């Protein structure tokens, strides 16, 4: 295979939890990492995707900042591991947890490796009540060491700036401004007289040979009287032409107001709830990488970072847990970048591939039961039990928006820390039961009802390939008798991602 990188395969989209996928990558194999993970915002999204109008529900289930940081920490540790010593790392977030994210990243990368907080103006002012209108995101920029790629971007000057600063014209259309030609520091060897102009107190900025060359090129402006003679009471100045020196613009700062968000009128809009503009990612990738460097986005969403990397001749790796997102970003690469999704072309060093998309029903019937349980729970947005023995009829848990930790005393904290189940401290959760059966019958439903009564849960989820009529009748009877809801999912519904109306 003609591999673009000797360290790792690139031009690949991996479908799955980035924690699992990152652990498969070698140390120090990536030049630039950008992530835009789900914010700790408790927001629900109902999204219609592209041409198929496929409705999906995106829920940020991290109901507490502590849970969000606990979720992100191991993933950021892995990201730091795969970053090259000369690499750069960008973490895009908003106000909900940005301060806690900064502390976490300081601990992982080191406080001295923090380079900038970029403030991106992502929206116009809106009518927030009793607070300053929130219009910006934060992007934290870290490096692995003090040696890193940097192609300092510049911001083009506005028409007003040019009109104010470059107000002189030689008559040929070339605009210029005047700059000081005197030395800022004492330079005894530069205290010579020039064309009748006495030396400045600290001397001239240039030696006589340089002054003569500039004068011959017409680059020195001389103050004159109305009759054209030199006014030696004033000083000559240097002409700085706009098209030669400053046409690239001024060095860019860390407050970005010139890149518009992807709104409802934007041509690149796909309908993804947190889609970022390609221009934003192009700026980051240009500044912190070079052609053929490897760019990694571990929370790809709709793939904007991959599009920008491909356009800028970088290698790239994308990861996202959502099969729909992986399909959408693949379509963008095909449509926007004219890159073919083809295994043979990819092996020849061209094209791209998508890995680890969900299995078919036929394959899911054949995998080991514990692996099937993990797949089903994760597909519902839940967390599978780490222990598969003695799970008391619970294969996983879903933590809804609004779940909070009510246990505050020291003993409860010790208990929580000892609990190996991630997010186990949440007091509100829904049990998930999974059966790798062609048709789940009433006895399985009866057992799950006992679990819900024992755990005092008001809602639970069941996954199977199908259900008998007795099983569905019992689910209905149980609700009418107890008010507790069992939501039955089929594998077909999960594969087709018909989840939104049942998870609501």
Strand content: 15-25%
How many structural domains in the coordinates? 3
Specify the overall morphology: elongated
What class, by secondary structure content? alpha/beta
The average pLDDT is 84
CATH superfamily of the largest domain: Vaccinia Virus protein VP39
Rg calc: 31 Å
CATH topological fold name of the largest domain: Rossmann fold
CATH architecture of the largest domain: 3-Layer(aba) Sandwich
Order of adjacent strands in the largest pleated sheet: 14-6-7-5-2-15-16-1-17
User: What ranges have pLDDT less than 50 throughout 5 or more consecutive residues?
Assistant: 40-59, 402-426
Write a structural description.
The structure is a single chain. With 504 residues, the chain is α/β, with parallel strands linked by helices. It folds into three domains: 220 residues, 3-Layer(aba) Sandwich (Rossmann fold); 92 residues, no CATH class; 143 residues, Restriction Endonuclease, CATH 3.40.91.30. 31% of the residues lie in helices and 21% in strands. The chain is built from 17 helices and 22 strands. Strands 14-6-7-5-2-15-16-1-17 form a nine-stranded mixed beta sheet, with helices on both faces. A five-stranded mixed beta sheet has the order 18-19-20-21-22, with helices on both faces. α15 links the parallel β21 and β22. α2 packs parallel to α3. The protein is elongated. About 9% of the residues have low confidence.
